[in-house]
Structure formats: structure tokens, C-alpha cells
Amino acid sequence: MTELKQRHDFVLFFDVLDGNPNGDPDAGNLPRIDAETGHGLVTDVSLKRKVRNFVLLTQEGKPGLDIFVKEKAVLNQRIADAYKGLGIDLSEKPSRAEDGKKRNKPGEAQGSEVEKGRAWMCKTFFDVRTFGAVMSTGPNAGQVRGPMQLTFARSVDPIVSQEHSITRMAVATEAEAEKQGGDNRTMGRKNTVPYGLYRAHGFVSPHLAKQTGFGTADLEMLFQAFTHMFELDRSAARGLMSMRKVVVFKHGSELGNAPAHALFDRVHADRKQRDKPARSFSDYTVSVDKAGLPQGIEVLELVG
């Protein structure tokens, strides 16, 4: 895999129509919101989950593109599989004297074994190589700081959360049917955002990429996932979600040619008519100020 030698900073724009983009389990699964400003929020964890799902669905079975954190996975077992793949028996004393004369804790790696386990996990799992992971539990493969980091997404304008009553024309048990007196209807609630355009920021560090083995092919996969991740992750609760634009600032060096915030300030999302609520992406103009860009900065615009 080709080594990544340029820093990348990027801006994601995605929207939601009549859906809940990221429910808050601590608030009855209401859309996440900044209580002081009314702006909608989507966590970085939610966005990373969609990237993982895309890679899992499209690259399943391909070497180096497995997913560590996936549904129903037993993480400690997956870490143990690393040491099996390396031929390291964690029930016996370490094979290298410098790692200790005896095993401090049966079934747990120590010394240089941990570094080998960490390297195996990075090589095997796309999400470990990209986002990093805490793998110090159970057999212990240490911790990895990922080269790609995402912020929370925040809506460009304040959002309105609407609550809807919904009806199910059936009941789950006979006891419920008797209680309803033959009227097999149950009521529920559903919360949606009529429309919201969200913006998130991300960063890719070549220095951390060297530590995990994240290369140019992984970066291409990441941006492919961003552009398609909502297409393969539909849900009635989330309504219509679409990735609208990905603006990438590619630096000419590992350290970078400008501060990330200065580049992000060049990306604008402006509502065309302030006197009426936005209900589609066409109600906004998204632009990038490319005048006087710092030397060595290349702008790439993906999607839309």
C-alpha cells in the first residue's frame, strides 16, 4: 500500500428530510440538539458507524478490510484471534526473555507481544487502521490512535423537532387485545426534523497514518464511503438522508501548508431566502473561496 504523505482536512455536508438523523437515547431518542442555540447535532460515532457499515457491505472478505467494531462482535475474542494468527500462545510464558520470565496474567499479552498484536490488528481491520481503537482489554493489543478524526456534525441553521403520533393496527399479545376490547390499535410517537443541512469537519494525519499503516488506498476508500454511506444505510426513522458535498483540502506536505480552521473558514453554506424555512438543499448555496489559497493547497470537491 502506498504511504500517505500529505495532510488532508475536509468538510462534509449532508442533509435530512423528515427524519431523525441521530437520536439521543438519554432524551427519549429525540433528535440531538444544542440546547442553547437550537442547532442540530450528529455525533462522530454515528458517522463512523456508517463508514464501517459501508466498508463491511462492499469489501467483505477482502484482506485488510475487515471491521473490528461491528454488530454482535465479541471484541476480546477478536483480539485473541490476533495472537492465534501470530502463533503466540498466551497461556505459556513469553518466548522472549526481555518480555518477562513468566506470564504476569494468563491469557494476556505483555512486552513486545502487545506491539505485534497491535500491528496485526491494524493490518487486518480497516476501522482500527483508520479511526484507532482501545484494545487493552482481555488479551490486550494496546491502544491505537487513528489518523482520521471527525468532529460532531452541526446543522447550519437551528432545527425544529416535530413529534408525530403513529398507530399500529395490531397488538403484540392476546392480553393486549382483550384490554383494547377488540380494537387492536396501539399508539406510538415518532420525532423528525422537517429539514436540516449538517456540516462536519475531519482531519487525516500522515504521521499517525505511518503508525497504523493507513495508506492512500485507505484514504480513497474513506472518501468513497463518505459519498455513498447514506445510500446503503436507509431507515424509516432517519427519513431521507443524503451526502451533498465533500470539500477536501489536500496539503502539499505532511505537516500541512495552512491551519485547518483557516481553510474551513473558506467554506460557506448560505441560505438563499432568510424569510422562509429551508426545506431542501436547493435552498442553500455552498461555496468555497479559492482566491488566494496558501501555496501547496489543492481543493477537491466530491459529490454534487
UniProtKB/TrEMBL annotation:
Name of one Pfam family that matches: Cas_Cas7
InterPro entries reported in the protein's UniProt record: Cas7_Csh2/Csh2 (IPR006482), CRISPR-assoc_prot_Cas7/Csd2 (IPR013418)
GO biological process: maintenance of CRISPR repeat elements
CDD domains: Cas7_I-C
Chain spans, region Disordered: 92-115
Domain of life: Bacteria
Signal peptide location: none
Composition-biased stretches (Basic and acidic residues): 92-101
Record-linked NCBIfam families: cas_Csd2, cas_CT1132
Protein name in the entry: CRISPR-associated protein, Csd2 family
